[in-house]
Queue: 3 jobs
Job 1
Amino acid sequence: MSEAGRLPRRVGIVGLGLMGGSLARGLKALDPTVHVAAAESRAEVRGRAIADGVVDAVHGSPGPWLVDRELVVLCTPVAAIEALLGPVSRQMSPGAVLSDVGGAKERVVEVARREGDPRVPFVGAHPMFGGRGGYEGARADRWRGGTVAVCTDGAPPEAVERVAELHRALGARVEACTAAEHDAAVALVSHLPYLLASALSLAAKEAGAASCWFMGCSSRPHVKA
């Protein structure tokens, strides 16, 4: 099956910032026949997205238009994702799949389990790449060569695979994990510079005063003339 053949035919995107805009551009670049509808609160971005051919339809907010979407991806900040999970899932048809691109997964998966429509499985996902800018920085090739974490808990395997196929088709490598494993790994990576600095500082202290001064962990040693 070709890359484009693995894509859902009707996709919904909530939020046309950097990631949502890049997702829309990537889908259209890979297969222009995929119908992409989006929700975006900023009127100027809605106008640009239509003019750019990035979406086929755009709305000011999620609503009944979600009913015919096979897959919907929430591309907003995590706090907004949590608030949207329940309302968006209840606008979707049973059997459709809801996903996201947020950087935190355990709490999002729990909110989806607690507040989402049980007939609409939620599959948490996190593209481990980004960039700068909003819609203006969106690129069709942003997924290519990147890694996407796709959470395996909270959804049936077939729903997980549908989300994984989307990211693979866009050119990313998919790493399956639980939400807890994802958050633990992200926490470790985000704290790694601090841990390395602490380890180097400790090593310098153990090596002696001159090394410690060189590493910046104490005042310069006094040298007699």
Job 2
Amino acid sequence: MLLVAEPGLGAEEILALAEVINSGWITMGDRVREFECAFAAAHQVADAVAVSSCTAGLHLAIEGLGLGPGDEILVPSLTFAATVNCVIYAGATPVFVDIGSLDMPHISPEDAAAKCTAKTKAVIAMHYAGYLVDREAWREFADSRSLFLIEDCAHAAGVSDGGELADAAVFSFYGNKNMTTAEGGMVFARDPGVRDRIRQMRSHGMTSGTSQRRSSGEVTYDITSLGYNYRMDELRAAIGLVQIQKLGRWNERREALTRAYRRLLAAQCSNVSMPFPGLRSSAHHILPVILPKGTDRRCTSGRLWRLGIQTTVHYPPVHRFSWYRSRFPSTRLPVTEEFSDRELTLPLHPKLEEHEVEFVVRALSDVLGTETLHDDLLCS
């Protein structure tokens, strides 16, 4: 089976884990701090805060910026639900914004502007598929309206300037990401005070952690703010320290495979389009394609599966999920909805070979060429 995503784990990660276990210290400590510094340096920012997940990081970023009840935050619906869930966690109200177009499935500045109110305090821009939004334009958008800009960088690890202009930016190290720690995330914040607040909130609001007290000889601590158990442990940090050394070449491989997909789809499957035409900074996290109108996606996906090709969807729109639909019943995002209905994610990861990309494209072309809409025999 050619998988949509596959982590790159091996002997170096096993050795790093063994070293942590042999050290006798597995909770948050020196390796977490080393990983924070390495990740910040790779992205050309001053510092970073490692957390247990990207979800935890988004929650901390929102609260660290002082956002909460009574505030509205502009959010995409074309994203994983965590992006929006975290707004709810903080007690703020998400305001769903449509994407710009099928070719450019980023949150739309025009729709965002139309949905700003006196209660709007922030906007979350998500780098869908690893392609960076126009950060300068969004920085200007936020500054002109006195809004905070939060970048959801879950797809964008390794893009050197990702998160650089945001008030806060959050990365994911989930198992399907460009680099992984199994679970985990990283937070950037421009304001050192916000960053310090996030660092303290990740560990119950405590003034010192266990590792710090062990090193200093202190026996007690204070809690000066409400906090959470959002810490990263030494085991995950050790994996991260190995993975970040490989991230650059892995992303280069992803870029080469993406170019191959784009070339082959244009030649063999011209009725299928790929978003983000032209040059654009990207981590090339996933490979989304837009199927022709009227295609039975379930049938197409099922037939590819039987040929040994896994596919998935990025993403079902958040506003269409039952929980959100019951709370925001009037939300309509026509471009997001069309994109989501026609999108299919093809395999993309550094272990993939170019001949396998050729096989995927040829299979997709054959499936679409022979598909009969709603043909129960083909789809069974």
Job 3
Amino acid sequence: MARVTLERVTKTYRTSRGEVHAVCELNLDVADQELVVLAGPSGCGKTTTLRLIAGLEPPTTGTIQIGDRVVNQVAPKDRDVAMVFQNYALYPHMSVFDNMAFGLRMRRVLRSEIKRNVHETASLLGIGHLLERKPGALSGGERQRVSLGRAIVRRPQVFLFDEPLASLDARLRLQMRTEIKTLHRNLQATILHVTHDQEEAMILGDRLVILNNGVVQQSGTPMEVYNRPANRFVAGFVGTPSMNFLDGRLQGDGGELLFRGSGVSLKIPPEIAGNLRSHAGEPVVLGLRPEHLVPADLNRGLPPGGVLDRRDAMAEVCTLAVHVVEPLGDRTNVHFLAPTGAIIVARTTPTSGVSPGQHVALFADLSYAHFFAPGENGRRLGS
């Protein structure tokens, strides 16, 4: 396997409306045997980045290195990478065996070695019994395994996965996530995996790279990105449901620091107030994840018990009308309608008893509060 390094890589397309930067000054370093997930919304430059590494697109500027080779001028077939696509890209007239063997035959590998590699890979993926079938006789999950097998059988230096699970149903996506994690461990492979599904990104990645408009917003482990988002865009992209945002201003009041917004006045806990005092008097955005913003228990007027029962850290935020209730079995997501028209989502227990139309007090655990500068990409404030 090999390390992959991109240094100040830009890809610009010329259109009738002028230049479009699909990727802008991208720096990326993927360690040998690391599984890195490129995540972001549609059109953020994820797939373009994979195509640049594979050689399917030339970079406008910058350097791409695989192992110890700069590959800017190296043909795709000579880069020793394998790409797995969302639409499987299997030859419909060929058997599973022939689909998996095709790349090896093109490289004039000995017939006996082709047979051994295909059967070993098919066994690894649990598709040995499908080798004589055609793709049309396979399920979506089976086709995706064949697509993975065609890449694995070559034993390339780098695997490039372009949203390979997007076409699968929910159950198969969950199953294939586990299989990709297992494959990565067994193959000790260098993998770049592209997805717009932030839950998939969190589950699969050793490291996440969050892109928006062709620019890297943050790189880190899944929990680093989740717990300490670098800006408001990352905070809103990572997490299901998305983080809630409240506009307001930080104000000093004696020795205390307060957040004041529309109908909201909250005392900032001392453990995070110290790093925010330099922003007193400034407009800010308060971010609260749904699991740290909970509706009152209607029977007691207090936040519900369980893992969120930290009443010493809880502060009442506001009282809002319940808009939609989403029962999910082990938890319930409650959507509230704010006076501004914004939707605020809180998480509670399945037995909380809230229902649409009720006005319910919301409590927040402010020790988990995030603060950002105003704007879609407002930077994280404080530590």
